[in-house]
From TrEMBL:
Taxonomy, superkingdom: Eukaryota
SUPFAM superfamilies linked to this entry: Zn-dependent exopeptidases (SSF53187)
Record keywords, A-Z: Glycoprotein, Membrane, Notch signaling pathway, Signal, Transmembrane, Transmembrane helix
Protein name: Nicastrin
PANTHER family found in the cross-reference section: NICASTRIN
Nicastrin small lobe domain segment(s): 30-204
Organism (species): Sparus aurata (Gilthead sea bream)
GO cellular component terms, semicolon-separated: plasma membrane
Gene3D superfamilies, alphabetized: Zn peptidases
Cellular compartments annotated: Membrane
UniProt record similarity statement: Belongs to the nicastrin family.
Record lineage: Eukaryota, Metazoa, Chordata, Craniata, Vertebrata
InterPro entries referenced in this protein's UniProt entry, alphabetically: Ncstrn_small, Nicastrin
Topology in the lipid bilayer: Single-pass type I membrane protein
Length: 674
């Protein structure tokens, strides 16, 4: 018992000492390593973490201290967001022998200037516009879609880069720098100096083929994986039930694909609000699906509408390329012969002069039948916009399609289609694929002192903008959907864990809402939410038991419904003056299909046709600051310690060897008697 108490006291003492030495940083988000068929991008630390003396960069001119004149390299550079630019980052990258890492302070408000760490020509090599398809349109020769793109997300860095919120931790770092590290009047800072350590060691190296080969090497019962293919699930639903068990071509079935993308990214791991690049489009499509539910059930249109939400489009069209591949391989509910046309909703939240632009592919329209169908679709959309507070126009000159999922269908065959955007040529989105493409940028804002429930119901200006887009798409007034659009914008951009979303999901997911985060080959939170939202907005609520619902049937004798419908039991709302929720069953045509690049099924890790992106695994992501002594003092301390150790060993040896002489004087003779 005494030994146990001693161990506990010793452990507590160790923790106490650690807390006195280190200040651990909260709310840090790393840049991580990604790999594809040819190379790796992103950031990493050494196995034991990178340590550097803190230096708060005050201006670009101040870089010389870090890269040349500072006497105590390596430095860990603290960057305010205005200095997180390509010129500065490239200088730090090229001087990496004196740079231990970078920490970027994320501002509490968006910067006034645009910032996009993506490339100027997104998905340049995996869309339809190749040298073979039309060399004039290849490589964004006609239109540079993302002119503000600086490509930072696609560089490789030999040091860790973290993002930190501008909060108490950041103030501690700044004060530590001011107290210990800042040079005053040209003087050299004196030890002890404030230092930071960042851990973000990545397991994968070189490229996807290398890391996947290492994954296959099994030397133990539980082999350690080093990377994972980027993947998720697409969400789709049809206005007419389609037999999902029998894959492949459906006789007499003609399908119009209404598509939007679900994903986005930024420089830092899992910070990807995608307000304009993703949310504006898929919220509009969700609202359209809900508005059309009653109309399509009362009178089925000539063609089935297939609502499709693609995942992984940022990384070389993972979701759309997989769906096209499955259609060609008879692994999807319909095939390409069933597809009549495609209508895709892109970025529609930032309309200039109340205009939406209809983009089409000039190459496939050289086919007369494709051209005729596209012209009909454009005329119908322009007719629908009359009398609404929005004008719908074509770009007015020959240019390729903007980056869009539709391009992957065109790679397979000429298909009529239109992509709806809020830009005529280059993106109006100044923060494309960055952490600043958020609620603030889309003007989803609320009066001060509102409760979360009041914010959930508050109609923002952006909701009104998207409703106008919806009216135009449907050729009818759908103001009754304004409430739903308002709630969806709040849920996806402000607070995922809200009372409305809680009603629409199963009870086993409720406690995890807002905490699910990023997943590999599982279902991410946006995918789950869109799945349940689409089911609730387009499905029906049959009066069946929970057991039958969860077993995909109307009753015990039903063997057919599961082929055409998907059943889900959701927790519902609690009645007034009660805490017990009233769950119910939702029957819909909503399904999930895999959004994993075919390259990984084919084990073609150097594919030029499909995405080959993987993400490295890691064990620890953390940061901490502490005071570090001078190198001379550390050497002196080490020398004194070694000297004391050697002296003690010599003394111990001498005393041990002379023990009989030193300790014999007081001994009694062995034969002494009393």
């Amino acid at each position: 018992c005494t030994t146990g108490k001693s161990l506990v006291l010793l452990c507590v003492g160790c923790n106490s000492v650690e807390k006195k030495i280190y200040v651990h940083l909260n709310n840090t988000v790393p840049c991580v390593r990604l790999l594809n068929a040819t190379h790796q991008i992103g950031c990493q630390s050494s196995l034991s973490g990178n340590v550097g003396v803190l230096h708060v960069l005050e201006s670009e001119e101040n870089l010389d201290w870090v890269l040349k004149t500072g006497p105590n390299p390596p430095y860990l550079v603290i960057l305010e967001s205005p200095l997180f630019t390509r010129p500065i980052m490239m200088k730090l990258k090229n001087g990496s022998s004196r740079v231990a890492g970078v920490a970027v302070v994320a501002p509490n408000a968006n910067p006034p200037k645009g910032f996009s760490p993506h490339t100027t020509c997104p998905n340049e090599n995996t869309g339809v516009y190749t040298e073979e398809y039309d060399p004039a349109f290849a490589h964004c020769n006609v239109t540079m879609w993302n002119p503000l793109g600086n490509g930072l997300s696609y560089e490789e860095y030999d040091f860790p880069i973290f993002s930190m919120k501008d909060d108490n931790d950041t103030q501690i770092i700044r004060q530590c720098y001011l107290d210990h590290n800042r040079a005053v009047n040209g003087s050299t800072p004196q030890y002890p100096l404030c230092a930071m350590q960042l851990y973000s060691h990545m397991s994968a190296v070189t490229d996807t083929a290398t890391c996947m080969r290492r994954n296959d090497i099994n030397f133990s019962i539980s082999p350690e994986m080093v990377c994972d293919p980027l993947g998720d699930y697409n969400v789709w639903a049809s206005t007419r039930p389609i037999n999902n068990t029998a894959k492949g071509h459906k006789m007499f079935e003609s399908v119009v694909i209404a598509a939007a993308r679900l994903d986005s990214r930024s420089f830092f791991f899992d910070i990807a609000p995608g307000a304009e690049s993703g949310v504006s489009g898929f919220v509009t499509l969700l609202a359209a699906a809900q508005a059309l539910r009653n109309a399509t059930q009362e009178a089925q249109p000539n063609r089935t509408i297939l609502y499709t939400f693609f995942q992984g489009e940022t990384f070389d069209y993972i979701g759309s390329s997989r769906m096209v591949y499955d259609m060609q391989s008879n692994q999807f509910a319909v095939d390409l012969d069933n597809v009549h046309s495609v209508l895709e909703i892109g970025q529609v939240g930032l309309r200039a002069d109340s205009k939406l632009w209809l983009h089409s592919d000039p190459v496939s329209m050289k086919n007369s039948s494709v051209n005729n169908e596209v012209r009909k679709l454009i005329v119908n959309l322009q007719t629908a916009s009359r009398g609404l507070n929005v004008s719908v126009e074509e770009p007015g000159f020959s240019q390729p399609l903007p980056p869009s999922s539709f391009q992957r269908f065109l790679r397979a065959r000429p298909i009529p289609g239109v992509v709806i955007e809020d830009h005529q040529s280059a993106f109006t989105n100044r923060f494309y694929e960055s952490m600043y493409d958020n609620a603030e940028y889309l003007n989803v804002s609320y009066p001060t002192n509102m409760t979360p429930e009041e914010q959930l119901e508050f109609v923002t200006e952006t909701a009104k903008v998207l409703i106008v887009s919806l009216n135009f798409l449907l050729s009818r007034s759908v103001l009754f959907s304004l409430c739903k659009v308002t709630r969806m914008l709040y849920g996806f951009l402000v607070r995922t864990n809200n009372s409305w979303f809680q009603q629409l999901i199963p009870s086993d997911l409720a406690s995890h809402l807002g905490k699910l985060g990023h997943t590999f080959l599982k279902i991410s939170e946006p995918t789950l939410l869109v799945q349940y939202l689409l089911a609730n907005l387009t499905g029906s609520t049959p009066n069946i038991t929970q057991d039958n619902c969860q077993n995909q049937r109307e009753d015990e004798e039903d063997k057919e419904s599961k082929h055409f419908y998907y059943y889900m039991w959701v927790q519902g709302a609690a009645p007034p003056n009660s805490t017990q929720r009233e769950g119910y069953c939702v029957r819909s045509t909503v399904r999930l299909s895999k959004a994993l690049s075919p390259a990984f099924d084919l084990r073609d890790y150097t594919s030029t046709n499909f995405s080959t992106w993987t993400e490295s695994r890691w064990k620890s992501i953390k940061g901490r600051i502490f005071l570090v002594a001078s190198h001379d003092l550390e050497m002196l301390t080490l020398g004194v310690g070694v000297g004391v150790l050697i002296t003690s060993l010599i003394l111990t040896y001498v005393i041990s060897s002379k023990a009989d002489m030193l300790f014999s004087a007081g001994r009694e003779p062995a034969n002494a008697t009393y």
